Amino acid sequence: MREFDVSDVIEPVKKSCIEANTVLPDDVKKALLEAKGKEESPVGSETLSQIEENIKISASEKLPLCQDTGFAVLFVEIGQDVHLAGGSLREALNEGVRQGYKEGYLRKSIVADPAGERINTNDNTPAIIHLDLVPGDKIKITIAPKGGGSENMSTIKMMKPADGLSGIKDFVVDWVQKAGGNPCPPVVVGVGIGGTFEHVAFLAKKALLRDIGSHHPDPIYAEAEAEILKRVNATGVGPMGLGGRVTALAVFIETHPCHIASMPVAVNINCHAARHKTVIL
What we know:
Layout: E1 2-5, H1 10-22, H2 26-38, H3 42-61, E2 71-79, E3 82-85, H4 89-103, E4 128-134, E5 139-146, H5 148-151, E6 155-159, H6 164-179, E7 187-195, H7 197-207, H8 219-232, E8 248-258, E9 263-270, E10 277-280
Parallel strand pairs: 1-3, 2-4, 7-8
Antiparallel strand pairs: 2-5, 5-10, 6-9, 7-9
Helix pairs in contact: 1-4, 2-3, 6-8
């Protein structure tokens, strides 16, 4: 059994909030550079060049990749051999977010009352925190800032089992095309299939954490990812919705067993600034 004081997460979370918002992961940078070589539209190619320049400036100047520094979404895996001490882990995680968004001069975008006065909390908390108990004695924290523009282009549909995988493909492609330039393409598309109404949305969000270039371990779903990506890029939406060949960098599917009478499907889209940072404590 390993004893862990919850206050020890504050500093790593603070630093990760800042880094996630200013330094794009290598897999995303690589995919964007490759996309530029594939883009046939002059406007699309120039748009990707501007995105590339923005990435360089952001990293060198420690400035946010996007002015929308998002909702702080935390995926936290806690080893079952860890004994948490010193207070509330949730409060410590939120304190890390609070300090990171203040010290990093990151835009605070969270309002306390969603349908009322909508007064800003002024520190970007509370964060969205997903906790999972796993084997081992480590704590793994992945911070994925999620901007409002791409998050607004999320959807869920309780499909019929008879719709099958072909129906799912059509639904995802149609939705990404309807989203158009709103989520700031080229996008990463997370797709959740199965589970329940609330769990399938989580699966779609979690799918966005995968490295670009990876494939689903099941060849059936890996083939579906490739087909959806090809069809999405044939829609002509293009970089920032200005037309072109590159609308999406990747499509990732995550699945979960579901009820015999249902087939829930969720789509969660990430903008080209597909930000996330992982620390293991």
